[in-house]
Amino acid sequence: MRYHFSGIAGAGVNPLARLMRARGHQVQGSDRSFDQGKNRDVADELCALGIEVRPHDGSAVTRDLDRVVFSVAVEDDTPEMRRARELALERVARPALLAEIINGGHPSVAVAGTSGKSTITGMVAWLLRESGLPATVLGGAARVDERGVGCLMAGPDGGPVIAEACESDGTLVGYRPTVGLAHNISRDHAEVEALRTQFGAFAKNCRKLLANAACPEASALARTIGGVTYGIAAGADLPLEVITPGPDRARGALHAGAAGVLSLEVPQPGVHNLENAAAAALVALELGVPAAAIGPALARFPGVARRFQVIGATARGIRVVDDYAHNGEKIRAALTTAQAGADRVIAIFQPHGFGPARFLRAELRALVGRVTRCCSWGRATRTFPAWPGRSSEPSTTELPDTRRAHEESGRLLMPNTLTVEDF
Predict the structure, then answer these.
(1) Residues 127-138: tens digit of each pLDDT
(2) Total-model pTM
(3) Residue 169 shares a structural domain with residue 111
């Protein structure tokens, strides 16, 4: 088949385009960022794979295409979308193509939850690779040792499929996996009440559900449909013991039923990373990874890009960490982990747009009080008179741009300080 991917630089679309190319299809794509001279490295990597990069002006959408796959971030009135309608081409939203791939896997795993999905998916991909088991894995973030956008392992068509399944666009209901994972259900993109229905439908579509017992919503879901719970909460079917959360590495023990007790150690600190590792270990067991191979492989896991990724350190004990956390639970986990390993924590935060900033405002007000200093920047910061980054909060500073944010954080640095950038 011949595919055109609209928005091919995106973390969700890019791995799908690469997978279709790996499966022998003709693939081309476009992205407005390429037309603006951005993401040149991404375009070059696509071309090296035999994927043709075309202008995002509609000229690439022609009658000889079989399918036009589009990111949900692409507006319906773009030249490409208008042209696809004019030619009556099959238009497939990214989540719909992902559902086809997941539902066609034997077996298949959908990794869901409002936090931890990308890390868990990356860990599963690592465990499969280290064990030599062929499978297709699709996730939203690359490992720190990888190039490219998103996570991709291209396995055989019709073989095992493991994919990150996002709730943000309401499409969880389309996945029918052999094993579903509900790692957590918390306020993200929508209130919990709105997410509950979607996760409930997802759970009913799974032949087997694994759910994090530490999350009340996920645990209740598992009880409703007879799922299996794991984690640090009392009463979990598969308990996780935390030996140490860091500050440099996290260690614990997972009681994995018939597989015995698995010693878990991950180079990424934090209780949340142990929970991620436990979830990944259980998925790996379902896929046939030997229990004895899981602990040693996770101990070598390089980490996922922009998930508490240490991007700089000095002999004076100053560390700079990049973390993409953008909801209350993720920000709380990042700051808790940072505080466990440093006397002072400086946070640099850019709101991810007006809507997310407004949605997070109440939670951020409580969270910024946990750090030594919070520097926030971006247009969304300046929009709200009650924003936590305003000068009325003594521990926060509102700054106009990235350069000033970095200058301000640099001025505040001293030994044993950890800077968390852009959460």
Answers:
(1) 999 999 999 999
(2) 0.81
(3) yes
